[in-house]
Amino acid sequence: MKNSPGLTSTRRNFIEKTGTAASVTLALAAGRQVHSATESPNLKLGLVGCGGRGAGAANQAMNADDHVNLHAMCDVDRQTLDKAEQILAKGKPGRVSVPEERRFSDFEGYKRVINECDVVILATSPGFRPQHFEEAVNQGKHVFMEKPVASDVAGIKRVLNAAKVADEKNVKVAVGLQRRHQPGYQQWIKKIQDGAIGDVLTMRALWNGSSRAGKLREEGESELEYQIRNWYYFTWLSGDHNVEQHVHNLDVANWIKGEQHPVVARGMGGREVRNKLENGQIFDHHFVEYEYADGTLLYSQARQIPNCAREIGETAVGSIGRAELTQRLFTISGPNAVKKNFRRNEDGHQLEHFPFFKAIREDLPYNEAERGANATMTAIIGRMSNYSGQPVTWDDAMASNHILVPTDLVDFTSPAPVQPDENGWYPVAVPGVTGPFD
């Protein structure tokens, strides 16, 4: 999902819109502490990946701390970089200073952005996230990285290893799973974990929504350049939409289970309407039955087909009741029945930056990388099962050498990891033919 980089939601406006509810006030307390820390030194912010989500995150980081200033930027598409800089500079006058010598558009530019800054936002296509995160941690820089944190198992392993190093180096790490920072979700999950519906027996996670259009090839661009520009439709770059998008809902399920993750995925999926060359490789529908170690089942749906029912949310069915969160409506049935509408302006994309910068300013423990990796890996084993038509266990997947993202890309002349056939069609997984770790 992308936010407009021109969005300017200040803390004052946020409070005015959301009123004086205690839950929201508590959620914003950390942000106000950072806001008032005028004696704190300025922090140099770097942005790696300047699309809508990256520019939005940079804006929200500056909203969360008045002494964070955008200092360096990197994107392999220079036009995207320049456009984001213009929008951010207009929205944050005096706080964006990115001269030519701190604008990078080559494949190694992320290293120089990290070197120039104190805090870095990682928001390129997910396939590159592990190597960028690894570099930032090695340089000892604080990291906000968007979800998902990888597109393959090799990337998950890199993230988990770098997360341990981050702890050793006292590097603060935030991951863009914003539901974790929304008061409504926090209250809902706490009620479930406090026994409002009894023992959780089954769960459901849904992201059945709209589809984004693929991008047509432009004259003269290389194969790798095209795939990176049309990144959403290539599994090595996005992970498929059940990883790139549905990871939010799967993270909520793991949260309900007390940070457990599933032990096996049994799924099915395919392509019903993605029948154009620009649709690349990914499926348009996924269904996965996940099983946790204690036998709890999670039924997961992710669909991107136009003119179908739109359903986004999570459900938990317990021994004495049922909890649902769908389209901002929270309900519990059973002896502890309750119903509540979530606040319209409960902006998780903004809220997630406040505790991150509070941790940096006050030197508090803060590392969401492992949690983000587990949510992403949950989505990856679901994709593996859907692509292959075989059950896939967590342990088997983690023991595999599954790798989709090349480690030797140097520029747009490098060969892309997948190639079209003579008619321009890309390889698409076929259940029953494709192996789970292909």
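the 2nd protein, sequnce then structure:
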Amino acid sequence: MELEEMRGRLTRFVQTKLDDPTAEVVSIEPGPGHAGFSYLFEVASGGDTKGYFIRLPPPGVKWEGTADVLRQATAVRALEGTDVPHAKVIWSGDDLKWFDCPYIVQERIEGDVARGDWVLQLSQETRRDMAKQAMTALAGIHRVDWESKCQYLGDFWGFEFDVTRWNRFYDRAAEPERLALQPRVKELLLQKIPENTRIGLYHGDFQWANLMFSPQGKLLAVIDWELCGIGATLNDVGWICAFNDPSAWASNRTIGEGVMPHGDELQEMYIEAWGEDPGDISWFKALATYKFSIISGFNLMLHRRGKRPDPQWEETAMSMTPNMEYALRMLGG
């Protein structure tokens, strides 16, 4: 949607929602990372100017899964009344008269995600405190009363599904020789399915690029809830811990080693915040790199065939084998 068309639609929208016929959208720009279906905008109303963020489903896709913005609205609203920093949902709905699709509008957070050169300028002590804030927030997410607040997100489909759902992507991956360990890792994942693991609300992509901080290192919001769902909450812990363990990655892939704490330290921070032993985190570390390795191969295929060009996957693919080797170690294989 062109910016001027979106400005017009947003103007009519906020005039109605704010009950102010003089409300005006004074600025609008594409949102970072989601150009074309998310926007940052400012509204002048009643002598005040406020910033907002709107997300719409990507054009031309079914409004389900990651494209169902009402799932994201459900998850973020479930955080209201908790200590988890988040961008408050101001409006959401499926009335097609505004944007021809469902929408979610949140308050705009003035901060930056925890990656890039600005983080390197902070002291090691500050960065460690940022990590502790993040893992404390993650424990807070996992404590949400999901059964009463997140019914829209559906039910947990089971651990076996969490493992086997990647089969169809594996079958289409480029450079399948990099995934030679996949059958063995998959076998062990299915053999060692954890017991007594907490089921609840999970973020789905809990990592530094989805955590907004102030310039001084204060956590302002956990953002980007497209992959949220109901399932084993340790999925989030395994994900961020594996992504911050250099042994899981090829030497040419920058994952922030020396910038933020090692995955093992993040794990200890989470356990401290949770207050008790949360269960077998190693299994979820293995699942994290297992599925990311397959995702890398699949996206490399899409890139090379010109279906979704992104040369970054050429570099990321170098970690496909190290990812599988790491998963095997986590499973004791």
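The first strand starts at residue 24 and ends at 30. The chain is about 40% helix and 15% strand.
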